[in-house]
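User: Please fill in residues for this 857-position structure.
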């Protein structure tokens, strides 16, 4: 076997498998490992990265951008338009064709660049919070981005980490891996190093194989990467896992809305073609007119406006130190009406410190501290803030002890044990939640004496229970410390974790954050109810909640939830605001129950125990310092763990939501009305109400005026309550506001024919200017639920809207008028125009206020 000190080349060391993928086989990696304990050199790693590609499930093609752009032309309407232009050119009508092509091109370029910019922004933000891996390179452990990992890299793994690629263990300490997502097995599996497994063995078949898409629940280890990116065993599934969550209510709404419009467009086209056929209009002209109307009706900028609005929302949130991983999360963020959170680090500072270590005589006990310290320093699982608090104290002398084994922490047992050897004896040291540890104790130690508990007669250790209850009521977090002497062995199991002797308590203080009480009030005022789901005991939780003014009719414990049916829980979850001693699975159940009650639920947490709930909630919120699993499951990451930024973020979410809705309301009311009057006029007029090119231009200018909607201000009254997708509102706008615009279109229609005795060209021009002005200016009315004079639009929105109306007014007087089919308008026209625009806006305002009133009821 040859050494892999050189980067492998395709023809030398890799085999092309039947599926055409390049596989680096395990034996080669082994040789590599034996020859070099310093990890890869950066040079070699770079070389391999070039060879194997980045460690990403699906590699975006080189031409992805070009494809994204070209896809915009795949819209059937656009295709027909382009075909029609080609036909026009053949028929000798160059000017029309050129106009159409220019408009289609401009529109798509605008669409593409805007979308692209927003996507870039989000990608950059996401990169800021992307998970890293601890890798041995150039003989040094370093944190690097996961996508630059290559086969042959040696990585370190700890509890809470996501496995970044397929790897084989070379060192493992009580390493438990959760691989439910890949194998369906819900319990964590222990993984071991298997030096003696056949070197050619398939990774799946050996106990030392760990895979992309799984996560470390407890323990720690080192592994060598054997496959990255698309070559990983479960790459497909893993890619699926990291994909964005299922469709949100908002996305579904938008999709249905699009469908509704498509149907309308379809019938409209059929209608026009029929009328054209019966009225013996020239067929080609009729077709072009119908298609132009269809294009006018389609909100083709909707995806772009959504992306840009959300992108801008994401950027504003980033200024408040809130990072959005998926754009879609923003709408949900604004809709949250129940926010569940765990306690440590959100309500409390999370900077826990050890107040004291007490024996059962309530006096400071160096012995309790020593055992607590041994326990924390020997455990290799996830270091909780409690462990960190213990370890930050001056170390006691622990040289005489060395570690034999450990039984890692889990959130159901709520305790953890380590076994150390002292002289020729083994000592099992357990620390954990007092209720859990007390159940494992058969004796307690008081003033150096062991007192045996008679468990058979149900005797409880009252002295300890009273002590920890008293401490909890004062808001101290307590961990019980117990021990047991055992013979020296190489392995210990859960079965050894019994018959313990209780020694005392470790007392921690975790002060409440300063601003929490105020933020809770603000959240409540803005329609968000806060609930605390804590794994801590009820007394501490209650104390903390009292301090911040969070009220609850009662506190529900995890035990109680165990016997509760789902409907009962749905009821309880509604009224209770504080849950204590809940396990990760129970947290998850509560979130489900709230979702069933039609709440939009946010969940905020940072621990391994929070990951399932972060997934289940409509919006998972985590913090930059959280464990990988939690950060990965969350769609929103707070760079500061503060409820203040969270509140800001929710308001930003509502703003973004509000701006997208504005675009929709505009599309369904003014634009819809316009296109319909156009179709109606077609029935009565001997000529086309407007040329196809003019409709396209009108629509394009109208769209341009809307591009700045994402920058717009949103009324305070709108931001003050959670916003939900409301199809009723959109429908009502379509039914009641749309026709108002038609009234004024027909008024123009009448004026042009009766007052100005207009020719076709003058008619077109008059209608073009009127429809552009009404359709665009109505934005000032629709953008607010209240009085337009009291709600200030953003400067960019004001500028583009006025500019577009001006362009419309000036166009007929420019040299472009000829090619576009316009002619200068008589001065009297402008008098009528302004009167009509004013009355139109006034009427829309009246109807809108009525609609909003009805909605409020
Ligand atoms: N490192 C540890 N060693 C022993 N016991 C621990 C450790 N970490 C946590 N526990 C016990 O498990 C309980 C639940 O853990 P934890 O407090 O992290 O849950 P949580 O649901 O995240 O609660 P919180 O709302 O306080 O964040 C703790 O109250 C404590 O009793
Ligand atoms: Mg926690």
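Assistant: Residues filled in for all 857 positions:
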């Amino acid at each position: 076997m040859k050494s892999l000190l050189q980067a492998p080349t395709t023809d030398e060391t890799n085999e092309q498998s039947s599926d055409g993928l390049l596989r680096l086989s395990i034996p080669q990696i082994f040789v590599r490992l034996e020859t070099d304990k310093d990890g890869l050199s950066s040079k070699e790693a770079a070389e391999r990265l070039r060879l194997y590609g980045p460690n990403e499930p699906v590699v975006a093609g080189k031409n992805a951008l070009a494809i994204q752009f070209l896809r915009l032309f795949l819209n059937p309407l656009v295709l027909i338009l382009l075909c029609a232009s080609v036909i026009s050119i053949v028929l000798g009508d160059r000017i029309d064709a050129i106009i159409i092509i220019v408009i289609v091109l401009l529109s798509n370029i605008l669409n593409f660049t805007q979308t692209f910019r927003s996507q870039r922004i989000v990608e950059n933000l996401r990169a800021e919070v992307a998970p890293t891996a601890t890798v041995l390179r150039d003989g040094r452990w370093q944190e690097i981005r996961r996508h630059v990992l290559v086969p042959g890299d040696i990585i370190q793994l700890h509890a809470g980490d996501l496995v970044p690629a397929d790897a084989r263990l070379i060192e493992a300490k009580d390493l438990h891996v959760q691989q439910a997502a890949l194998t369906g097995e819900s319990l964590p599996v222990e993984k071991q190093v298997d030096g003696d497994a056949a070197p050619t063995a398939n990774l799946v078949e050996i106990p030392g194989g760990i895979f992309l898409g799984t996560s470390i629940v407890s323990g720690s280890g080192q592994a060598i990467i054997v496959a990255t990116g698309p070559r990983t065993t479960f790459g497909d599934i893993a890619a699926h896992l990291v994909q964005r969550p299922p469709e949100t209510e908002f996305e579904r709404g938008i999709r249905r809305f699009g469908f509704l419009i498509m149907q309308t467009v379809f019938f409209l086209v059929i209608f026009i073609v029929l009328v054209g056929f019966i009225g013996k209009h020239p067929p080609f002209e009729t077709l072009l007119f119908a298609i132009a109307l269809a294009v006018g009706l389609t909100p083709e900028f909707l995806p772009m406006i959504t992306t840009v609005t959300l992108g801008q929302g994401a950027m504003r949130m980033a200024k408040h130190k809130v990072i959005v991983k998926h754009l879609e999360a923003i709408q949900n963020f604004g809709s949250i009406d129940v926010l569940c959170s765990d306690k440590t680090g959100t309500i409390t500072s999370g900077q826990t410190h050890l107040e004291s270590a007490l024996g059962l005589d309530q006096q400071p006990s160096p012995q309790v501290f020593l055992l607590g310290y041994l326990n924390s320093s020997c455990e290799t699982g996830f270091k909780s803030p409690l462990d960190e608090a213990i370890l930050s104290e001056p170390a006691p002398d622990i040289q005489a002890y060395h570690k034999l084994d450990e039984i890692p922490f889990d959130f159901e047992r709520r305790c953890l044990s380590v076994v150390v050897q002292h002289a020729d004896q083994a000592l099992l040291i357990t620390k954990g939640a007092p209720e859990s540890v007390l159940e494992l104790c058969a004796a307690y130690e008081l003033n150096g004496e062991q007192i045996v508990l008679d468990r058979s007669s149900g005797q409880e250790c009252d002295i300890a229970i009273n002590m920890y209850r008293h401490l909890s009521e004062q808001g101290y977090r307590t961990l019980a410390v117990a021990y047991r002497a055992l013979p020296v062995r190489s392995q210990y199991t859960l079965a050894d974790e019994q018959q313990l002797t209780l020694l005392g308590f470790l007392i921690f203080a975790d002060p409440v954050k300063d601003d929490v009480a105020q933020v809770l009030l603000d959240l409540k005022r803005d329609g968000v109810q806060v609930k605390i789901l804590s794994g801590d005991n009820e007394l501490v939780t209650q104390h903390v909640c009292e301090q911040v003014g969070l009220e609850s009719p009662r506190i529900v414990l995890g035990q109680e939830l165990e016997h509760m049916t789902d409907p009962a829980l749905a009821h309880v979850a509604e009224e209770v605001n504080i849950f204590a001693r809940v396990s990760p699975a129970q947290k998850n159940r509560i979130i489900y129950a709230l979702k069933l009650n039609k709440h939009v639920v946010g969940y905020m947490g940072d621990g391994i125990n929070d990951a399932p709930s972060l997934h289940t909630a409509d919006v998972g919120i985590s913090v930059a310092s959280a464990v990988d699993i939690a950060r990965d499951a969350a769609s929103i990451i707070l760079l500061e763990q503060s409820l203040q930024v969270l509140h800001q973020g929710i308001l930003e979410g509502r703003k973004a939501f509000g701006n997208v809705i504005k675009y929709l309301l505009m599309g369904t009311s003014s634009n819809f009305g316009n296109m319909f009057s156009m179709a109606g006029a077609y029935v009565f007029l001997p000529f086309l109400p407007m040329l196809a090119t003019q409709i396209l231009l009108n629509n394009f200018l109208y769209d341009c005026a809307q591009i700045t909607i994402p920058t717009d201000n949103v009324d305070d009254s709108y931001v003050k309550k959670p916003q939900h997708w409301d199809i009723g509102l959109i429908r009502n706008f379509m039914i009641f506001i749309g026709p108002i615009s038609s009234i004024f279109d027909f008024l123009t229609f009448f004026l042009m024919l009766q007052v100005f005795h207009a020719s076709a060209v003058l008619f077109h021009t008059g209608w073009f200017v009127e429809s552009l002005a009404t359709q665009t200016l109505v934005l000032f009315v629709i953008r607010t639920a209240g009085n337009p004079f009291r709600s200030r639009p953003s400067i960019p929105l004001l500028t583009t809207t006025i500019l577009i109306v001006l362009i419309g007014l000036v166009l007929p007087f420019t040299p472009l008028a000829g090619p576009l089919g316009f002619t200068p308008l008589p001065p009297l026209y402008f008098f009528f125009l302004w009167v009509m625009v004013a009355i139109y806006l006034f009427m829309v305002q009246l109807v809108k206020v009525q609609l909003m009133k009805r909605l409020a009821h």
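For context: Residues 342, 344, 607 surround magnesium ion (ligand 2) (CB under 6 Å).
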